[in-house]
Amino acid sequence: xxxxxxxxxxxxxxxxxxxxxxxxxxxxxxxxxxxxxxxxxxxxxxxxxxxxxxxxxxxxxxxxxxxxxxxxxxxxxxxxxxxxxxxxxxxxxxxxxxxxxxxxxxxxxxxxxxxxxxxxxxxxxxxxxxxxxxxxxxxxxxxxxxxxxxxxxxxxxxxxxxxxxxxxxxxxxxxxxxxxxxxxxxxxxxxxxxxxxxxxxxxxxxxxxxxxxxxxxxxxxxxxxxxxxxxxxxxxxxxxxxxxxxxxxxxxxxxxxxxxxxxxxxxxxxxxxxxxxxxxxxxxxxxxxxxxxxxxxxxxxxxxxxxxxxxxxxxxxxxxxxxxxxxxxxxxxxxxxxxxxxxxxxxxxxxxxxxxxxxxxxxxxxxxxxxxxxxxxxxxxxxxxxxxxxxxxxxxxxx
Length: 399
Prior knowledge:
By secondary structure, this protein is α/β, with parallel strands linked by helices. The chain is built from 14 helices and twelve strands. 46% of the residues are buried.
């Protein structure tokens, strides 16, 4: 039996390591293998590579090298920013603000703080998944110590008005953190323009290895450590640095930043072609997320009367690898908390599909995917007891 051609369409979950990145990493495994904390020559050569990687990453976001702290990934960076701020400023106040559509690394960190007696405000979003900056302003209290709002949503791709929210927080003298994991390498990021005090990043979202990321912490901002131990990362994050992955991440981020405009044009072209074709050819379908303020590679749909899991299984059988939402919760049978937060009923939220394009995709992938989807959705609906075409009305794109 012939195996179908595999088409990877889940770049929001992870990305393959670029050849240029792998080439930059290889000498670190065998030649520049020293511990950067060691004072002898081999260690100092490694330290020079660490310093260079830090400087490269800082340049990509308009930061200072001393504001970049390496972590094991985006989840650690989120946990550190939230829990480190909460404990550092507990004497000032125990109130934090976030939204209902955050990544689980943020939501679960906030929930952990709730169990410790902190008060968390979970702001609602509109039907496109955007938070109102004025709602942030209204939620800030004298005892608020942190606002944490995702820059670009990992499921529906909606981009938040981060600069405006950051300005509000700066005026209120409240620290502002944003999870920039999905935005990195996809849209331009400049820390001074965005008014952020902290930003979380994860390398494997922009063609770097997994298990490495970083937290930007603005100069002058002090938060408590999350991991105690040695004096690495200027005594703020213990543990010997993952040198090969850090060097690879720096190279990947440098390439992604340089290619943002070109990639955005190519990816958004495929995204828009997919959205137009799906909405035209498959009735009772909704586009989730903002129609314009969204990541260039993200399209998220809800198909009425069917289950997203069934769509994924049938697509996989045909060689298409997509997702129904966050890869971090793909084993859950619960509907997406993001889709529920934008107002979708449970039964429609269950029928979601996320497609995220990347460097391996071409425009030819779009009609192939759409043709497959048309057949799959029709077949599943014919088996669904909820599907009664004669009694139905079209589901509008906008509420």
